[in-house]
Design goal:
It is a single chain. By secondary structure, the chain is an alpha/beta fold. It folds into two domains: about 60 residues, no CATH class; about 180 residues, Glycogen Phosphorylase B (Rossmann fold). About 45% of the residues lie in helices and about 15% in strands. The strands form two sheets. Strands 6-5-4-7-8-9 form a six-stranded parallel beta sheet, with helices on both faces. The two termini are about 15 Å apart.
C-alpha cells in the first residue's frame, strides 16, 4: 500500500496454525465459527505476504485459500541463542526436586496444555509403560483450558495408576523450565492426527530438542520436520499407543541411546532452526 512520499507499506500476516480448526475444540457459536473462518481466509488472501509456521499450513494456505506460493514464507519456531543444553547431572533444579517424588526414578516428562490428544491415550500409555517398566514415573506438568489436568489425575486414579504419576499443575516460569527438563530422562509429545495438530508448530517441542532431552512423539505435522526418526528422537505412527509405549521404554532402558539422540537433537535444531537463520526469511517476507 502506498502511504505517500515514497512510503510503501506491506501487509504481512503471520499464521501459526489453522485457526478454523479451533472451532472443533472450543465452544464457539455458529456465528463466531463462520466469522473466524471468513476472517482467516480474508486476511490470508489479501496479505502482501504470509508467514506460516508449518509445512502443512503452507500447503493449506496455497491450496485451500489460493495464495500465490511466491507470497508464502515458511518460518517455523526457532531456537534463540539463550537456550542452553541440559546439565550433565542426572537431576537438577532443587526447587522442582522438592515438588516431585518422580525424580528418584526413571522419569517421563509430559509438559502440556492437554489439548493435542485424547486424555484416555495418556491413561493407556501410563498403563503400557508400567507393565513393562513399573519403576518408571511420569512427571505431568501443565494446566489445560478446561481443567484437563484434574480430569487426567482422576482417570489415572480410577484406573489404579495414580502411583505412577506426579502432577505439577502450577505455571512454570520460563527461567525455571531448564530445571524442569533436567528432571526428565525422556520427554513425550503425543499428537492426535488432527488438522490443528498437523498445522501448528510447537515451541515446547523445539525447546526439548534444543536442550538435548530425548523425545518420543507421534509422527504428525511439524514433529516430522523437527525430529529425524532414530537420529534426533523417536517418531511412532500416529495414535499407535503400543508403539509409543515401546519407544518410551526402549529409551528408558538405553542411556547411551538417550544421550546420542539428545545430542543430535540439540545440534540439529540449533543448526537448522536458529533464529539467526530464520530471520532471513522473515526479512524477505517484509522486504
Amino acid at each position: 500500500m502506498d502511504g505517500g512520499a515514497g512510503d510503501v507499506r506491506r501487509l504481512v500476516v503471520d499464521a501459526d496454525d489453522w485457526e478454523q480448526a479451533w472451532n472443533d475444540l472450543l465452544p464457539y457459536s455458529r456465528v463466531q465459527q463462520k466469522f473466524f473462518a471468513w476472517q482467516e481466509r480474508w486476511g490470508l488472501s489479501h496479505a502482501d505476504a504470509v508467514t506460516v509456521a508449518s509445512r502443512a499450513l503452507e500447503e493449506l494456505v496455497i491450496s485451500r485459500v489460493g495464495v500465490d506460493p511466491a507470497r508464502v514464507f515458511y518460518v517455523p519456531n526457532g531456537v534463540g541463542p539463550d537456550v542452553k543444553p541440559r546439565t550433565d547431572q542426572p537431576f537438577g533444579g532443587a526447587l522442582l526436586l522438592a515438588l516431585t517424588t518422580a525424580a528418584s526414578s526413571p522419569t517421563i516428562l509430559l509438559f502440556s496444555r492437554f489439548a493435542e490428544y485424547r486424555l484416555e491415550r495418556i491413561v493407556t500409555l501410563v498403563r503400557l509403560v508400567a507393565a513393562q517398566m513399573p519403576q518408571a514415573r511420569w512427571l505431568i506438568v501443565g494446566r489445560g483450558f478446561r481443567g484437563e489436568e484434574a480430569t487426567l489425575r482422576a482417570s489415572l486414579a480410577q484406573a489404579g495408576l495414580a502411583r505412577y504419576a506426579e502432577f505439577v499443575s502450577d505455571w512454570i516460569p520460563p527461567e525455571r523450565i531448564p530445571a524442569l527438563l533436567d528432571l526428565a530422562d525422556v520427554a513425550v509429545y503425543p499428537y492426535d492426527d488432527t488438522l490443528l495438530n498437523r498445522t501448528k508448530c510447537s515451541v515446547k517441542l523445539i525447546d526439548f530438542l534444543a536442550a538435548g532431552l530425548p523425545v518420543v512423539a507421534d509422527a504428525v505435522g511439524q514433529n516430522r520436520e523437527y525430529i529425524q526418526d532414530g537420529v534426533s528422537g523417536l517418531l511412532t505412527p500416529a495414535e499407535d499407543d503400543e508403539a509409543f509405549a515401546r519407544a518410551v521404554v526402549r529409551l528408558l532402558q538405553e542411556p547411551d541411546s538417550r544421550q546420542q539422540l539428545g545430542r543430535a537433537a540439540s545440534e540439529q535444531v540449533r543448526e537448522n532452526y536458529a533464529w539467526s537463520r530464520l530471520i532471513e526469511t522473515v526479512e524477505e517476507a517484509y522486504g
